[in-house]
Specification:
Helix content: 55-70%
Radius of gyration: 43 Å
Strand order of the largest sheet: 5-4-3-8-6-9-7
Shape: globular
Number of strands: 9
Amino acid sequence: MEVVLATRCCPAAGRAALLRALSASLPPSGRRRCACCCSAWRGGPPAAARRRRGGRPGSGAGRCRPLLRGARAAGAVRRRGRRGARCGTACICGAPLAARLARDALASWRGRRAGAEEAGGGAGGGGAALEGRLLSRCVARAGTGAEEGEGEAAAALVAGGYCGAGATARGRVLWGCWARAGRRGPGGRCALSALADELLPRGPAGTGSGLDARLCPGFWRLVQEGLTERDGLCRKRARYLLKRALDLSALPRESSLFWWSADKNEQLLQFWETYILIMETLEGNQVGSENKTLMKEGILHFLELYETKHLPNSLGFSEFVIGPLMDALSESSLYSRTPGQLIGACPPLGMRLQKFLATYLALLPEEEKGSFLLKFIQKMTNRHWCAVPILFLSMALASIPACKVLGAEGLHALRDVLQCTMITHQILLRGAAQCYLLQTTMHLTDVEKVSFPEVSSFLLSLRPEESLRRDTLLWTELCSWLQVNDRCFRKSVTADFKHQETSSLCQYVHSLVGEYLKAPASERENCFMPDWFEAKLVSTMILLAADVDGKSNIEWIELEAFLNPLLDVLMKLGSNAYIPTLKTDKSLQLLLKLLQTRSLKCSNTQDDEVLLFIWKSLVTPVESVLEFVLRRLTTNELSSVGDLDRCDLYLALIPEIVNLCLKINRKKMPSIKNFLSSLINASIRNLQESNSEKPKVKEQIRKVASMASLAAVCEIMDGKLEVHLESLPSVDALKKLISFSQFNEVLKKPSYTEEKQSIFFHSLGEETTSRGWGKIVARYVHDQWICLRFVLNLFPTLAQGYEETSDMSLSTAERSKKILQSALEALTILPSDQVLPVFDCMKVLVPKLLDSSESLCIEAFDLVWKIISSLSNTQLIFWANLKAFVQFIFDSEVLAIAASAKGQAYAKIKEIIFKLIDVSTTKTGVFNVVLSHCCQSWLFPTVDERSALTNAFLNAGNYSELITEACVFGTVFRRDQRLIQDVHAFIENLGEKCAANVVTESTNRDDHYVRVCAVKFLCSLDGSNILHKMFMEDIFIKLLDKDELVSRSRTRYYANSLQHRIKNRVWQTLLVLLPKLDQNFLCGTLDKVFQAGFSTNQSSVKYFIEWIVILSLHKYPQFLDKFWDCFCYDEEKLKTSICTFLSVLAHFDIILQNTSEKKPALKKALIVVLQWCFSHNFSVRLYALVALKKIWAMCRMLHVEEFETLTPVIESSLQQVENMHGTGNARRNWQRIQDHFFFATFHPVEDYSLETIFYTLPRLSELAEDEWISLSKFDRFTDIPLPPAFQWYRSQTELCDLKPSDWSQQDMGSHSAEADSQTEWTDVQKKIIPWKNSTPSLDLEMAFQDRAVKLGKSNSRLIVVASLIDKPTNLGGLCRTSEIFGASALVVGSLHYIQDKQFQHLSVSAEQWLPLVEVKPSQLVDYLQQKKTEGYTIIGVEQTAKSFDLTEYCFPEKSLLLLGNEHEGIPANLIHHLDVCVEIPQQGIIRSLNVHVSGALLIWEYTRQQICEQPCSIFL
């Protein structure tokens, strides 16, 4: 019997050996049975072997039993051999042995797989001989114990036992399959799949076993559960059973639980076949479980189904919504627009979510609504949601009809969601989400369950600069909500009005202000500043109560009552020195918050009654506040590090108080001036005090506060020029101090040894917890440069009038050079958020030194650029620093001086221009800042710029590259970037309905604004101005050169590629410039335009070229001779471009509008067109016939006698074309080309407008949507206004209403009708996706960038690295092989290979389903090292001295396969980075395999070892 087990692994030899071994000791009947068994290893014993026979087994059976029971005797023999031996021997030896084997197996079964295997073996081998109950037990055990492939064996064995059993035994088998095994393991579906022929028999009724599984609910339960199993094999078995049931139901039989109707037999059959086809396709390699398209379609269908069908509600369904559904909704890509949706439209998922939530909540019982919504909102806080999903979920919540279901816990959950929105850097999305969450609060909160403190705490989580701000619709809605629900809110636990059950808003605010201004009696003088939270809360609630009160038409009594406690404290500040510090801090914080309140809509303060009343009230204690601030800043009252926060509070109050007095009471300005003079003088005295060798904390803090005070005063004087504060006597003393000061003076760290112990610990504690001494020193240096900036702006010479020192006797240039050197030093010591005043000083100094100290200025340029580039990922301070950098580098005087010298500085500035453009490709908005500043300074120079230059516009000509690059600027965005842009556009389209649009500052960081700015700049130029004219001509030539450069580049040029977009932008800009160009210039450049027409161009570019040619000939008909020359080239050059010139002739009536002699031109046109009407190319003939129809109509109208002889021929030809009824698509294409917008509707002169150029024509020519620039963007970009006389703005309505034509896609023409008519699937291959992709068609560059995040369709950890391979055929084959065997990724040297036709021919679309990663050969070392750190084993396919034989090597799970070059193999510098080399054993002489073949062999061996050796089944 050892032979039996050993040879099971080799079926060919095993059958003969088994036959010989068993037949030697068996009677003749046993030998025949053995032979039958050996002929049916795969499907169980044959029919002859299944029949019961008389007699008892011979002596061979006695030997079989110990072997069958004793698996250990086999040692290394495989389990599959043991299973076969048991099955075959039990079948041969009859019922006694089979029954004994089955009982032994059941007795020893303890959950082991071996027990289950033996039970199944007994049942399968001797099932026909077993009585029903024993057979049922064997089946149940075999089914429940089957795991990872054992179920297949169980199913095979059960099938044999079932088929020979009696009716009772069969029933028990079925009961064991679906009543037990279905709940405990996969064995039930295994057995049912094997028994499908018996349970779901084919053929006429009455044949087969007489059983019908469809009548049993357990069968359908198993199928239904199987379709949703995680295990793919279980799903496959369930689909197989469903197929069999479908086939059986389609026959004319009696009805079953599987509902079927004879009347709807065809429809039902089609439905279920389609369903099964979809299920099978989903299982295919092409589509994985993480496919975002399928997920999106599934969610949309589900939401729509629930909305329309009103499915019954259940607790399990609510758990599904809050669990898996919301998990799926967290994927941002699901919220993309569908094809055909306009930019700015709400994505389908966003709309469906709103309807679904409202519908579902309406179906819920009232008592369940609150708990469901609470769980829903809490789910939004338990993970890191991206900005897009949280926005649309918030919008869906806000769209729920008002119902009072949320209490305090719900309010807290919504506040937690608000905190989640702060993670994103997308300010507009963040603000919009806050708006919707506030609306959700107002719609769903039960005010009787929440108190005012809870509501106010929630409101404070909203940022005023992003969402909740006065004068917005949201603020008005909030005021109305508070007014309607006033006195309905739950009473707070700490409320003073204890006799009431509810509270009113006014009562709450009264109490809030009173509690806020209370200070504990035991408060220490030296304490930390209070948190700003309370001040923000009190000021917000005061304003809300005031606006609610104002809506009630009540006088300002309540508002006055709110402010009185604050005014009382403020009035005492100047005279009462014993007010607790905490109380003064809180009162000044509240004062500052109230003064910082701004009105959005009302430019005139008198129109905002609430603010006007507040400001009039607050202006009263101004003198007292200023007296207090002066005392605190100039005496020794600020003595610790923590007091610097108070210093900041006092200094922030000063400009607000100045603004208040200017708006409300200018009579207080003398007090302001006296205060500023006193502050300046006292601060100067403090700074001039000599320092001891070991300064104390108090001394150094006083110096820091004094320098900060001077800086604050300088900023006020810089910003309030109308008050003429610079005329104060103390300003001279300030100038003298700055002139004598040592720049970048660093304060010594104070000594604590002489301080009191309490002060020491207090200061030290603040220093270590608040800010280090280095930050304080940086602040001190920063304030010095603010003062210097003021002095430099006011007194550019700086040394004027102060000659008493040798330092001051230096020349102005030398003094400026010294200050610039100090500025460079300051940039090296200051943190990045404090360099702005240094930039401003350099802006004043560099123009004076650019001629004499160019190298120093270039050093300044380099250092400043280094700082800016290092901040590109720091969102908070980057933009302010960038703006200052641009104002410095691109200052009109700096640009003019550098351009006049044409030296190194000029080259450096141009280098910086291109560096900024390069940064703009990855950080949207950088180029916008540069271009906007330059265009404004060149078109609208300030007074200083006019005085410094003869003409600021000269800089535009010297740096024209800036405008040229701006005209074609724009990257191809990734899909996630386009999604963010689409959502931005959607929010912006909401207008004032979304408060975020009103309160967020417009940053103009959309890349479209770069081109919009450039176009509006060009539109503002005057053709009669000689400088403007020369500039426009220069730009026109440079753009034509750029188009030619793109046409000659080797980069593949396909629809919506970057090259296509650049060419499109070039011709759009040329079209804008065209009306401003004169005849002489066009005469010299029109030839270049014609040459561009001969190039291979996409349809959108062709339209623009044709349009420019038409307009040029329309304006200057004398250029027609140049145009006719275009038809004189040889046919080889014209065959791809002649349609462009024929399209021009289709508008010949417009060209001849300004020509008095039309007949000669018509004659020439007719001669030219007629010869192309006989072209071999069908498309050329169509274009020629369109032109001929137009020209001939003109000839008939003008009665050209010369062509009377041609009249019959031409008219009969045109009539024949109109009436053609031939086969194919000729007639249809003729109709389509005539209906095409360019020939039927478009008018080159009347439709000339910005809207047509940048929006309508790109849309009609099917350019990518992110290339469409709507007029709204021209309106929103206000930095550069269009001239008042500008008239070319909007398209005609008729053109705007058109839809894109498909004529430009001529390859689709012959199939469109067939495609439209084919609405059903017919004979679809399983491996092909049988439905159209519902996502917008993406250009290849974008698709390839997203490959690395493609669907996870296998568990493989194999990465194939083919970066060294450069032949597209090999790469295409490897791509196909890697995809088929489920590699996790293919690494190539360049993604451009994927565009190669040879690659695509070999890959057969595998690149669409396999993650592709680009790693250039030069980057391989870093890539391999990175993968090593991730746990990958680097395996090289190379023959080395220590290489392993492929047949002997065991691949690790995480393997990276590095393939060598076709000729050189793996370079030597990469060999030592490999963990192991594997070679393929060879027998031939050549000793060299193709790299694709080599890679395929190793990929298969890895697959075989890692995947294929897992237990598998021959059954479904």
